[in-house]
Amino acid sequence: MSNHNHPFYNPQLSYEDNYKKGPFGVFTKKPDTSSLLQNPVHFLGCNVNLPFGIPAGPLLNGKYVKAALDWEYDICVYKTVRTKKYKCHPLPNVLAVHPDHKLSANIDTVLADQNYDLPISITNSFGVPSFDPDVWQPDMEEAVNYAKPGQVIIGSFQGTLGATSHIEKDYAEAARLIDETGAPLLEANLSCPNEGVNNLLCFDINKVERIVHAIKNTVPDKPLILKLAYFKDNTLLYSFLERLAPIVNGFCAINTLSIRPINAHGECALGKDRPIGGVCGNAIRWAGEEMVSRLYEWRANHNENFIIIGVGGVNTPEHYHTYRSLGADAVMSATGAMWNPALALQIKKIAQ
Ligand SMILES: Cc1cc2nc3c(=O)[nH]c(=O)nc-3n(C[C@H](O)[C@H](O)[C@H](O)COP(=O)(O)O)c2cc1C
User: Fold this and answer.
1) Which residue of 124, 157, 223, 281 could cross-link 44, Cys pair, CB 3.0 to 4.6 Å?
2) Residue 2 C-alpha to ligand 1 middle, in angstroms?
3) Confidence tier at 103 by pLDDT (50, 70, 90)
4) What is the CATH number of the domain that holds 289?
5) CB 57: neighbour CB atoms within 10 A?
6) pTM score
7) Residue 179: inside a domain, yes or no?
């Protein structure tokens, strides 16, 4: 079997089985990295050997984070956690998608199946599951302590609608729980559903501002990154940045683009109750690159110094370099790295 049949997350298995039995493929071994020369750079008060890593999601727990650190991903985001246990959607959680034209940001209808061909694009549909803090806190702490000099762990979190009377309180509580693990950096996932008119939380600027103030009041001294979706509209993006850029430390963009995944019979591929899925991987690289360019341009024009983490469709070392040339201070790969776990090593060998 070729390498692409061995992603480190197995899409055929349930989330719980991946959590318990994974990671898979080459992530079960340690690579020989003795000949690597490292050249650390500054990243939000930390040193990282290469500003490249894996964003929130595929690193389900400490075992996955440790494997990614061994495979030279120097910025590893521990999967988004919540203040309480939250169930995962049933299978399927990961299907390959095959857009027959450039994907738009307008919820295209796209064929989804189990032909995981490269370069890979997938729809992922998990519902951001989480274990209780008494499970993930000690596990995250262990992962944080495993990182070598030049490597850093980011703790990703989100609030849960209805968990408390105000979502901002739940975001702040999640940030506090992560802070207790010793993770040096925080990332708030805002590309999740919102109540009311704005379909994603990050498009509701007033609410985001309240959330960020609540987090900063609770954990004032830890750098905070906001995970953003693709903004179609510069007017909204610029209003967002005017309000949020002065009070946070970085932006990570993008999360998935939404589509309607269908099977060969035209039915909802994720099941009737899940007509919409998020696409990640190769098909969204254009959108990630575009967001990085827009963030970079805005930052240059506004004398701000937040960091920009570019995410979306990175499958090769060239994609990493393109994102960097567009202004990303760091780059991450989820889908690309899942199917090509040696990606960080490939970038390091080419870079040296
Ligand atoms: C399996 C999987 C799970 C994900 N879960 C999360 C998550 O829990 N929180 C989050 O902010 N993003 C999540 N994402 C989105 C990624 O962090 C990333 O933004 C997106 O996949 C685009 O990057 P890519 O094209 O390299 O996959 C997930 C992605 C994948 C593939």
Assistant:
1) 223
2) 24
3) very high
4) 3.20.20.70
5) 21
6) 0.97
7) yes
